Amino acid sequence: MSPVMNTVIPRPSSVLGTGRSFELPADARILVQPNAPEVAQIGEFLAAALRPATGLALPVTAGAAQERGTIHLTTAAADPALGAEGYELLVAPHGVLLAAPRPAGLFRGVQTIRQLLPAAVERRTVAPGPWTLPTGVLRDAPRFAWRGAMLDVARHFFPVADVKRYLDLLAYYKFNVLHLHLTDDQGWRIEIKSWPRLAEYGGSTAVDGAPGGYYTQEQYADLARYAAERYITIVPEIDMPSHTNAALASYALLNCEGEAPALYTGTAVGFSTLCMGKETTFRFMDDVLGELAALTPGPYLHIGGDEADSTSPEDYQTFMRQVQAIVQSHGKTVVGWGEIAQAPLTPGTMVQHWRQDLTPQAAASGHKVILSPAGKTYLDMKYDEATPFGLSWAGYVTVQDAFAWNPGAYLAGVGEDAVAGVEAPLWTETIPTFAEAEFMLFPRLLAVAELGWSPAAGRTWDEFRSRLAHHGPRLEGLGVNFFRAPEIDWPETL
Ligand code: TNX
Protein backbone atom coordinates (compact mmCIF):
# COMPACT_ATOMS: atom_id res chain seq x y z
CA MET A 1 0.00 0.00 0.00
CA SER A 2 1.52 3.31 -0.97
CA PRO A 3 1.48 5.76 1.90
CA VAL A 4 -0.85 8.76 1.70
CA MET A 5 -0.26 12.34 2.80
CA ASN A 6 -3.72 13.15 4.11
CA THR A 7 -3.58 11.71 7.62
CA VAL A 8 -2.07 14.75 9.34
CA ILE A 9 -3.89 16.41 12.26
CA PRO A 10 -4.48 19.33 12.21
CA ARG A 11 -5.29 19.17 8.50
CA PRO A 12 -2.79 21.25 6.50
CA SER A 13 -3.97 24.13 4.30
CA SER A 14 -3.04 22.32 1.11
CA VAL A 15 -1.67 18.90 0.27
CA LEU A 16 -0.73 17.51 -3.10
CA GLY A 17 0.32 13.87 -2.97
CA THR A 18 2.49 12.55 -5.80
CA GLY A 19 2.03 8.85 -5.03
CA ARG A 20 5.61 7.72 -4.42
CA SER A 21 7.66 7.47 -1.28
CA PHE A 22 10.95 8.46 0.33
CA GLU A 23 12.58 5.93 2.61
CA LEU A 24 15.02 7.11 5.26
CA PRO A 25 18.29 5.36 4.33
CA ALA A 26 20.53 3.79 6.98
CA ASP A 27 22.80 6.83 6.76
CA ALA A 28 19.97 9.38 6.75
CA ARG A 29 20.94 12.83 8.02
CA ILE A 30 19.19 15.95 9.11
CA LEU A 31 20.64 18.87 7.26
CA VAL A 32 20.27 22.29 8.86
CA GLN A 33 20.91 25.76 7.52
CA PRO A 34 24.44 26.84 8.54
CA ASN A 35 25.02 29.49 11.24
CA ALA A 36 21.45 29.25 12.52
CA PRO A 37 21.52 27.84 16.07
CA GLU A 38 17.74 27.88 16.41
CA VAL A 39 17.33 25.84 13.22
CA ALA A 40 19.99 23.41 14.46
CA GLN A 41 18.09 23.05 17.73
CA ILE A 42 14.92 22.16 15.80
CA GLY A 43 16.95 19.65 13.79
CA GLU A 44 18.10 18.08 17.07
CA PHE A 45 14.49 17.96 18.28
CA LEU A 46 13.48 16.06 15.12
CA ALA A 47 16.44 13.68 15.42
CA ALA A 48 15.63 13.01 19.09
CA ALA A 49 12.01 12.26 18.16
CA LEU A 50 12.94 9.79 15.40
CA ARG A 51 15.98 8.00 16.86
CA PRO A 52 14.40 5.71 19.48
CA ALA A 53 12.01 3.85 17.15
CA THR A 54 14.07 3.98 13.95
CA GLY A 55 17.35 3.10 15.64
CA LEU A 56 19.01 5.41 13.06
CA ALA A 57 21.94 7.61 14.09
CA LEU A 58 20.42 10.62 12.27
CA PRO A 59 23.30 13.05 12.69
CA VAL A 60 22.40 16.73 12.43
CA THR A 61 24.83 18.48 10.11
CA ALA A 62 25.02 21.95 8.58
CA GLY A 63 24.49 22.40 4.86
CA ALA A 64 23.01 25.03 2.59
CA ALA A 65 22.05 22.88 -0.40
CA GLN A 66 19.81 19.83 -0.67
CA GLU A 67 21.52 16.45 -0.55
CA ARG A 68 20.26 12.92 -1.21
CA GLY A 69 18.91 10.99 1.73
CA THR A 70 18.49 14.01 4.00
CA ILE A 71 15.76 15.97 5.68
CA HIS A 72 16.74 19.57 5.02
CA LEU A 73 15.54 22.35 7.35
CA THR A 74 15.93 25.97 6.28
CA THR A 75 14.51 29.46 6.72
CA ALA A 76 16.37 30.69 3.63
CA ALA A 77 14.25 31.46 0.57
CA ALA A 78 10.96 30.51 2.22
CA ASP A 79 7.83 32.35 1.15
CA PRO A 80 7.29 35.18 3.71
CA ALA A 81 3.53 34.89 3.07
CA LEU A 82 3.63 31.71 5.18
CA GLY A 83 3.81 33.96 8.23
CA ALA A 84 4.98 33.38 11.79
CA GLU A 85 4.19 29.65 11.97
CA GLY A 86 3.64 28.54 8.37
CA TYR A 87 5.90 26.18 6.41
CA GLU A 88 6.28 24.38 3.13
CA LEU A 89 7.20 20.72 2.90
CA LEU A 90 8.44 18.98 -0.19
CA VAL A 91 8.88 15.22 -0.02
CA ALA A 92 10.66 13.83 -3.08
CA PRO A 93 11.80 10.22 -3.64
CA HIS A 94 15.38 11.25 -2.76
CA GLY A 95 14.81 13.50 0.27
CA VAL A 96 12.78 16.04 2.21
CA LEU A 97 12.88 19.84 2.15
CA LEU A 98 11.20 21.76 4.95
CA ALA A 99 11.24 25.54 4.51
CA ALA A 100 9.67 28.22 6.70
CA PRO A 101 10.24 31.96 7.05
CA ARG A 102 10.50 31.63 10.85
CA PRO A 103 11.92 28.87 13.10
CA ALA A 104 8.46 28.39 14.67
CA GLY A 105 7.21 27.33 11.24
CA LEU A 106 10.02 24.78 10.96
CA PHE A 107 9.03 23.40 14.35
CA ARG A 108 5.40 23.02 13.23
CA GLY A 109 6.59 21.39 10.00
CA VAL A 110 8.70 18.93 11.98
CA GLN A 111 5.48 17.65 13.60
CA THR A 112 4.07 17.06 10.11
CA ILE A 113 7.17 15.07 9.17
CA ARG A 114 6.69 12.90 12.28
CA GLN A 115 3.05 12.31 11.38
CA LEU A 116 3.90 11.35 7.78
CA LEU A 117 6.13 8.52 9.02
CA PRO A 118 4.56 5.20 10.12
CA ALA A 119 2.82 5.38 13.52
CA ALA A 120 5.43 3.07 15.07
CA VAL A 121 7.94 5.93 14.80
CA GLU A 122 6.43 7.31 18.00
CA ARG A 123 7.48 4.27 20.04
CA ARG A 124 10.33 4.74 22.45
CA THR A 125 12.02 1.43 21.56
CA VAL A 126 13.35 0.19 18.21
CA ALA A 127 10.55 -0.87 15.86
CA PRO A 128 10.66 -2.50 12.42
CA GLY A 129 10.76 -0.10 9.42
CA PRO A 130 10.82 0.68 6.62
CA TRP A 131 10.68 4.39 7.53
CA THR A 132 8.95 5.92 4.57
CA LEU A 133 7.17 9.20 3.92
CA PRO A 134 4.67 9.72 1.10
CA THR A 135 5.91 12.10 -1.58
CA GLY A 136 4.17 15.36 -2.35
CA VAL A 137 3.99 19.05 -1.65
CA LEU A 138 2.36 20.50 1.41
CA ARG A 139 1.79 24.16 2.24
CA ASP A 140 0.49 25.02 5.65
CA ALA A 141 -0.21 27.91 8.04
CA PRO A 142 -2.56 28.29 11.01
CA ARG A 143 -6.02 29.85 10.89
CA PHE A 144 -5.78 31.30 14.43
CA ALA A 145 -2.85 32.75 16.37
CA TRP A 146 -4.03 31.33 19.75
CA ARG A 147 -4.35 27.55 19.88
CA GLY A 148 -4.51 26.77 23.53
CA ALA A 149 -5.09 24.21 26.22
CA MET A 150 -5.61 24.93 29.91
CA LEU A 151 -4.60 22.66 32.78
CA ASP A 152 -6.05 23.20 36.25
CA VAL A 153 -3.14 22.32 38.55
CA ALA A 154 -4.95 23.84 41.56
CA ARG A 155 -7.76 21.35 42.21
CA HIS A 156 -5.26 18.52 41.74
CA PHE A 157 -1.55 19.16 41.48
CA PHE A 158 0.40 17.91 38.46
CA PRO A 159 4.17 17.68 38.92
CA VAL A 160 6.65 19.18 36.44
CA ALA A 161 7.08 15.86 34.59
CA ASP A 162 3.34 15.74 33.81
CA VAL A 163 3.35 19.28 32.48
CA LYS A 164 6.36 18.50 30.28
CA ARG A 165 4.61 15.45 28.90
CA TYR A 166 1.56 17.59 28.19
CA LEU A 167 3.76 20.14 26.39
CA ASP A 168 5.19 17.31 24.24
CA LEU A 169 1.72 16.13 23.27
CA LEU A 170 0.49 19.67 22.60
CA ALA A 171 3.49 20.32 20.37
CA TYR A 172 2.68 17.19 18.33
CA TYR A 173 -0.69 18.74 17.42
CA LYS A 174 0.67 22.27 16.78
CA PHE A 175 -0.78 23.99 19.85
CA ASN A 176 1.05 27.17 20.84
CA VAL A 177 -0.45 28.12 24.23
CA LEU A 178 -0.53 26.27 27.56
CA HIS A 179 -2.61 28.18 30.10
CA LEU A 180 -1.82 27.03 33.65
CA HIS A 181 -4.59 27.64 36.19
CA LEU A 182 -2.12 28.03 39.06
CA THR A 183 -4.35 29.05 41.95
CA ASP A 184 -7.80 28.32 43.26
CA ASP A 185 -9.64 27.76 46.52
CA GLN A 186 -8.08 24.30 46.91
CA GLY A 187 -4.43 25.12 46.31
CA TRP A 188 -1.80 27.75 45.47
CA ARG A 189 0.79 26.20 43.10
CA ILE A 190 3.46 28.82 42.42
CA GLU A 191 6.18 29.96 44.80
CA ILE A 192 5.95 33.70 45.56
CA LYS A 193 9.08 34.78 47.41
CA SER A 194 7.54 37.89 49.01
CA TRP A 195 4.54 35.86 50.30
CA PRO A 196 6.05 32.43 51.02
CA ARG A 197 3.09 30.98 52.89
CA LEU A 198 0.96 31.05 49.72
CA ALA A 199 2.76 28.01 48.31
CA GLU A 200 4.05 26.45 51.53
CA TYR A 201 0.72 26.48 53.35
CA GLY A 202 -1.83 27.36 50.65
CA GLY A 203 -0.26 24.78 48.33
CA SER A 204 -0.39 21.96 50.84
CA THR A 205 -3.91 20.80 49.95
CA ALA A 206 -5.91 19.59 46.94
CA VAL A 207 -9.45 18.31 46.38
CA ASP A 208 -10.57 15.56 48.77
CA GLY A 209 -7.26 15.26 50.63
CA ALA A 210 -5.20 14.46 47.51
CA PRO A 211 -1.52 15.44 47.79
CA GLY A 212 -0.78 19.15 47.40
CA GLY A 213 2.34 20.67 45.90
CA TYR A 214 3.64 23.70 44.08
CA TYR A 215 6.21 24.76 41.50
CA THR A 216 9.27 26.54 42.79
CA GLN A 217 10.25 29.57 40.74
CA GLU A 218 13.17 27.57 39.32
CA GLN A 219 10.81 24.78 38.25
CA TYR A 220 8.41 27.28 36.73
CA ALA A 221 11.22 28.95 34.77
CA ASP A 222 12.31 25.50 33.57
CA LEU A 223 8.76 24.79 32.36
CA ALA A 224 8.63 28.12 30.54
CA ARG A 225 11.93 27.26 28.82
CA TYR A 226 10.74 23.75 27.92
CA ALA A 227 7.58 25.27 26.44
CA ALA A 228 9.54 27.89 24.50
CA GLU A 229 11.69 25.15 22.94
CA ARG A 230 8.39 23.81 21.57
CA TYR A 231 7.22 27.28 20.49
CA ILE A 232 4.52 27.18 23.14
CA THR A 233 3.74 30.19 25.33
CA ILE A 234 2.79 29.50 28.93
CA VAL A 235 -0.02 31.77 30.12
CA PRO A 236 -0.05 31.72 33.94
CA GLU A 237 -3.33 32.38 35.74
CA ILE A 238 -3.76 33.74 39.25
CA ASP A 239 -7.52 33.47 39.70
CA MET A 240 -8.94 36.53 41.54
CA PRO A 241 -10.89 38.06 43.27
CA SER A 242 -12.82 34.83 43.97
CA HIS A 243 -11.27 31.32 43.85
CA THR A 244 -8.81 32.67 46.43
CA ASN A 245 -9.44 30.62 49.57
CA ALA A 246 -5.92 29.12 49.52
CA ALA A 247 -4.43 32.65 49.65
CA LEU A 248 -6.92 33.88 52.25
CA ALA A 249 -6.14 30.85 54.41
CA SER A 250 -2.41 31.53 54.16
CA TYR A 251 -2.52 35.18 55.29
CA ALA A 252 -5.04 36.44 57.85
CA LEU A 253 -4.25 40.03 56.88
CA LEU A 254 -5.75 39.49 53.40
CA ASN A 255 -9.20 38.99 54.98
CA CYS A 256 -11.58 41.88 55.64
CA GLU A 257 -12.14 40.57 59.18
CA GLY A 258 -8.44 39.86 59.72
CA GLU A 259 -9.11 36.19 60.31
CA ALA A 260 -7.90 33.37 58.07
CA PRO A 261 -10.42 30.75 56.92
CA ALA A 262 -9.50 27.06 57.00
CA LEU A 263 -7.91 25.42 53.98
CA TYR A 264 -10.54 24.05 51.59
CA THR A 265 -10.71 20.68 49.84
CA GLY A 266 -14.30 20.67 48.55
CA THR A 267 -15.46 21.63 45.06
CA ALA A 268 -17.89 24.50 45.56
CA VAL A 269 -17.16 27.76 43.70
CA GLY A 270 -17.77 31.47 44.26
CA PHE A 271 -17.58 31.61 48.08
CA SER A 272 -14.20 33.33 48.51
CA THR A 273 -13.18 36.89 47.71
CA LEU A 274 -10.21 39.18 48.14
CA CYS A 275 -10.99 42.18 50.35
CA MET A 276 -11.18 45.31 48.18
CA GLY A 277 -11.34 47.60 51.22
CA LYS A 278 -7.73 46.87 52.16
CA GLU A 279 -4.55 48.46 50.84
CA THR A 280 -2.80 45.13 51.60
CA THR A 281 -4.85 43.45 48.89
CA PHE A 282 -3.37 45.69 46.20
CA ARG A 283 0.16 45.25 47.54
CA PHE A 284 -0.47 41.49 47.44
CA MET A 285 -1.70 41.68 43.84
CA ASP A 286 1.26 43.82 42.79
CA ASP A 287 3.81 41.54 44.51
CA VAL A 288 2.32 38.33 43.13
CA LEU A 289 1.78 39.60 39.59
CA GLY A 290 5.17 41.32 39.62
CA GLU A 291 7.04 38.13 40.52
CA LEU A 292 4.99 36.15 38.02
CA ALA A 293 5.61 38.71 35.26
CA ALA A 294 9.35 38.51 35.91
CA LEU A 295 9.23 34.70 35.60
CA THR A 296 7.10 34.72 32.46
CA PRO A 297 8.74 35.21 29.05
CA GLY A 298 5.34 35.32 27.31
CA PRO A 299 3.31 38.54 26.98
CA TYR A 300 0.19 37.48 28.93
CA LEU A 301 -0.96 37.25 32.55
CA HIS A 302 -4.38 35.67 33.16
CA ILE A 303 -6.15 37.18 36.17
CA GLY A 304 -9.18 34.87 36.31
CA GLY A 305 -12.14 37.05 37.27
CA ASP A 306 -14.71 34.23 37.03
CA GLU A 307 -17.57 33.36 39.38
CA ALA A 308 -16.97 36.25 41.79
CA ASP A 309 -20.30 35.57 43.47
CA SER A 310 -19.17 36.93 46.86
CA THR A 311 -17.67 40.15 45.51
CA SER A 312 -20.01 43.16 45.27
CA PRO A 313 -20.37 44.67 41.78
CA GLU A 314 -18.60 47.84 43.00
CA ASP A 315 -15.71 45.81 44.44
CA TYR A 316 -15.50 43.83 41.20
CA GLN A 317 -15.08 47.09 39.25
CA THR A 318 -12.40 48.23 41.70
CA PHE A 319 -10.62 44.90 41.30
CA MET A 320 -10.68 45.09 37.50
CA ARG A 321 -9.50 48.70 37.40
CA GLN A 322 -6.57 47.95 39.71
CA VAL A 323 -5.58 44.58 38.28
CA GLN A 324 -5.42 45.88 34.72
CA ALA A 325 -3.21 48.78 35.83
CA ILE A 326 -0.94 46.44 37.80
CA VAL A 327 -0.53 43.94 34.96
CA GLN A 328 0.16 46.77 32.55
CA SER A 329 2.76 48.26 34.90
CA HIS A 330 4.60 44.93 34.71
CA GLY A 331 4.57 45.06 30.92
CA LYS A 332 2.03 42.32 30.29
CA THR A 333 -1.35 41.95 28.59
CA VAL A 334 -4.38 40.98 30.69
CA VAL A 335 -6.44 37.90 29.89
CA GLY A 336 -9.55 37.16 31.95
CA TRP A 337 -12.60 34.92 31.91
CA GLY A 338 -15.77 36.24 30.23
CA GLU A 339 -17.09 37.82 33.44
CA ILE A 340 -14.48 40.60 33.14
CA ALA A 341 -16.51 42.09 30.28
CA GLN A 342 -18.88 43.42 33.01
CA ALA A 343 -16.19 45.95 33.96
CA PRO A 344 -14.51 48.67 31.88
CA LEU A 345 -11.64 47.08 30.00
CA THR A 346 -8.28 48.63 29.22
CA PRO A 347 -7.34 48.53 25.52
CA GLY A 348 -5.60 45.24 24.76
CA THR A 349 -7.28 43.19 27.49
CA MET A 350 -8.42 39.81 26.11
CA VAL A 351 -11.62 38.03 27.06
CA GLN A 352 -11.91 34.26 27.39
CA HIS A 353 -15.49 33.22 26.76
CA TRP A 354 -16.76 30.08 28.50
CA ARG A 355 -20.51 30.60 28.98
CA GLN A 356 -23.16 33.23 28.18
CA ASP A 357 -21.60 36.60 28.96
CA LEU A 358 -20.87 40.09 27.62
CA THR A 359 -18.06 38.94 25.33
CA PRO A 360 -19.86 40.28 22.20
CA GLN A 361 -19.90 43.81 23.67
CA ALA A 362 -16.19 43.56 24.53
CA ALA A 363 -15.47 42.35 20.99
CA ALA A 364 -17.47 45.28 19.60
CA SER A 365 -15.11 47.65 21.40
CA GLY A 366 -12.06 45.95 19.96
CA HIS A 367 -11.12 43.30 22.54
CA LYS A 368 -9.82 40.02 21.20
CA VAL A 369 -11.69 36.90 22.20
CA ILE A 370 -10.49 33.43 23.13
CA LEU A 371 -13.23 30.87 22.65
CA SER A 372 -13.66 28.16 25.29
CA PRO A 373 -17.40 27.46 25.15
CA ALA A 374 -18.02 24.85 27.84
CA GLY A 375 -20.34 22.66 25.77
CA LYS A 376 -17.66 22.29 23.06
CA THR A 377 -14.22 22.74 24.61
CA TYR A 378 -14.47 21.82 28.31
CA LEU A 379 -12.62 18.54 28.23
CA ASP A 380 -13.51 17.86 31.88
CA MET A 381 -17.05 17.17 30.64
CA LYS A 382 -17.81 13.47 30.34
CA TYR A 383 -17.98 11.97 26.82
CA ASP A 384 -21.19 10.15 27.74
CA GLU A 385 -22.97 8.75 30.79
CA ALA A 386 -20.44 5.90 31.05
CA THR A 387 -17.35 8.11 31.43
CA PRO A 388 -15.91 7.15 34.84
CA PHE A 389 -14.92 10.68 35.90
CA GLY A 390 -15.43 14.26 34.79
CA LEU A 391 -18.41 16.58 35.19
CA SER A 392 -21.54 17.09 33.10
CA TRP A 393 -22.92 20.52 34.03
CA ALA A 394 -22.38 21.70 30.43
CA GLY A 395 -23.64 18.40 29.02
CA TYR A 396 -21.74 15.47 27.56
CA VAL A 397 -19.12 16.44 24.99
CA THR A 398 -18.57 13.82 22.31
CA VAL A 399 -15.67 13.97 19.87
CA GLN A 400 -18.11 15.20 17.26
CA ASP A 401 -19.41 17.93 19.61
CA ALA A 402 -15.82 19.09 20.15
CA PHE A 403 -15.24 19.15 16.39
CA ALA A 404 -18.44 20.33 14.75
CA TRP A 405 -18.56 24.10 15.32
CA ASN A 406 -17.02 27.16 13.74
CA PRO A 407 -15.04 29.49 16.04
CA GLY A 408 -15.31 32.27 13.44
CA ALA A 409 -19.11 32.26 13.62
CA TYR A 410 -19.87 30.90 17.07
CA LEU A 411 -20.92 34.04 18.97
CA ALA A 412 -23.30 36.49 17.32
CA GLY A 413 -21.31 39.67 16.70
CA VAL A 414 -17.91 38.00 17.24
CA GLY A 415 -16.55 37.37 13.77
CA GLU A 416 -13.34 35.73 12.62
CA ASP A 417 -11.35 38.97 13.03
CA ALA A 418 -12.30 39.36 16.70
CA VAL A 419 -11.30 35.78 17.52
CA ALA A 420 -7.73 35.28 18.72
CA GLY A 421 -8.35 31.55 18.77
CA VAL A 422 -9.61 28.58 20.74
CA GLU A 423 -8.64 27.01 24.03
CA ALA A 424 -9.64 23.72 25.66
CA PRO A 425 -9.65 23.81 29.47
CA LEU A 426 -9.23 20.73 31.64
CA TRP A 427 -10.62 21.43 35.12
CA THR A 428 -9.46 18.77 37.51
CA GLU A 429 -11.92 18.49 40.40
CA THR A 430 -12.44 14.83 39.39
CA ILE A 431 -9.08 14.22 37.68
CA PRO A 432 -6.47 13.07 40.21
CA THR A 433 -3.56 12.08 37.94
CA PHE A 434 -2.31 12.64 34.41
CA ALA A 435 -3.54 9.19 33.28
CA GLU A 436 -7.13 10.35 33.86
CA ALA A 437 -6.26 13.69 32.28
CA GLU A 438 -5.10 11.91 29.10
CA PHE A 439 -8.32 9.94 28.94
CA MET A 440 -10.37 13.15 28.99
CA LEU A 441 -8.06 15.05 26.62
CA PHE A 442 -7.60 12.41 23.97
CA PRO A 443 -8.92 12.19 21.36
CA ARG A 444 -11.03 15.37 21.81
CA LEU A 445 -7.96 17.59 21.93
CA LEU A 446 -7.26 16.63 18.30
CA ALA A 447 -10.60 18.15 17.31
CA VAL A 448 -9.62 21.39 19.08
CA ALA A 449 -6.25 21.34 17.31
CA GLU A 450 -8.06 21.10 14.00
CA LEU A 451 -10.44 23.98 14.82
CA GLY A 452 -7.56 26.21 15.82
CA TRP A 453 -5.21 25.46 12.94
CA SER A 454 -7.05 24.20 9.86
CA PRO A 455 -9.09 26.13 7.31
CA ALA A 456 -12.86 25.90 7.80
CA ALA A 457 -13.44 25.35 4.09
CA GLY A 458 -13.90 21.71 3.20
CA ARG A 459 -14.26 20.60 6.81
CA THR A 460 -16.52 17.60 7.35
CA TRP A 461 -17.02 15.31 10.31
CA ASP A 462 -16.76 12.19 8.15
CA GLU A 463 -13.43 13.18 6.71
CA PHE A 464 -12.05 14.17 10.14
CA ARG A 465 -13.37 10.98 11.66
CA SER A 466 -11.46 8.83 9.21
CA ARG A 467 -8.29 10.89 9.62
CA LEU A 468 -8.61 10.69 13.40
CA ALA A 469 -8.70 6.88 13.20
CA HIS A 470 -5.10 6.96 11.89
CA HIS A 471 -4.05 8.62 15.14
CA GLY A 472 -5.11 5.70 17.35
CA PRO A 473 -1.83 3.84 16.72
CA ARG A 474 0.10 7.12 17.02
CA LEU A 475 -1.39 7.87 20.42
CA GLU A 476 -0.64 4.29 21.38
CA GLY A 477 2.97 4.72 20.26
CA LEU A 478 3.16 7.86 22.37
CA GLY A 479 1.80 5.86 25.31
CA VAL A 480 -1.31 8.02 25.63
CA ASN A 481 -4.23 6.66 27.65
CA PHE A 482 -6.92 7.73 25.18
CA PHE A 483 -10.66 7.06 25.09
CA ARG A 484 -11.56 4.63 22.29
CA ALA A 485 -14.54 6.78 21.33
CA PRO A 486 -17.20 4.58 19.71
CA GLU A 487 -17.75 7.24 17.02
CA ILE A 488 -14.37 6.36 15.49
CA ASP A 489 -13.49 3.21 13.50
CA TRP A 490 -10.17 2.65 15.22
CA PRO A 491 -7.78 0.46 13.19
CA GLU A 492 -5.88 -2.57 14.48
CA THR A 493 -3.55 -1.60 17.29
CA LEU A 494 0.20 -1.25 16.78
C1 TNX B 1 -16.40 26.56 35.98
S1 TNX B 1 -14.87 27.85 33.84
C2 TNX B 1 -15.26 27.16 36.49
C3 TNX B 1 -14.27 26.34 37.22
C4 TNX B 1 -14.73 24.91 37.36
C5 TNX B 1 -15.34 24.44 36.07
C6 TNX B 1 -15.72 23.00 36.08
C7 TNX B 1 -14.54 28.78 34.94
C8 TNX B 1 -13.93 30.01 34.54
N1 TNX B 1 -14.89 28.45 36.21
O1 TNX B 1 -14.02 26.92 38.48
O2 TNX B 1 -13.60 24.15 37.66
O3 TNX B 1 -16.51 25.22 35.83
O4 TNX B 1 -16.13 22.56 34.82
From TrEMBL:
N-terminal signal peptide: none
This enzyme's EC code(s): 3.2.1.52
Keywords recorded for this protein, A-Z: Glycosidase, Hydrolase
UniProt xrefs under Pfam families: Glyco_hydro_20, Glyco_hydro_20b
CDD domains to which the protein is assigned, alphabetical: GH20_SpHex_like (cd06568)
Family according to the record: Belongs to the glycosyl hydrolase 20 family.
PANTHER family per the UniProt record, alphabetical: BETA-HEXOSAMINIDASE, BETA-N-ACETYLHEXOSAMINIDASE
Classification lineage: Bacteria, Bacillati, Actinomycetota, Actinomycetes, Actinomycetales
Beta-hexosaminidase bacterial type N-terminal domain residues: 7-141
Protein name: beta-N-acetylhexosaminidase
UniProt source species: uncultured Actinomycetales bacterium
Molecular function in Gene Ontology: beta-N-acetylhexosaminidase activity
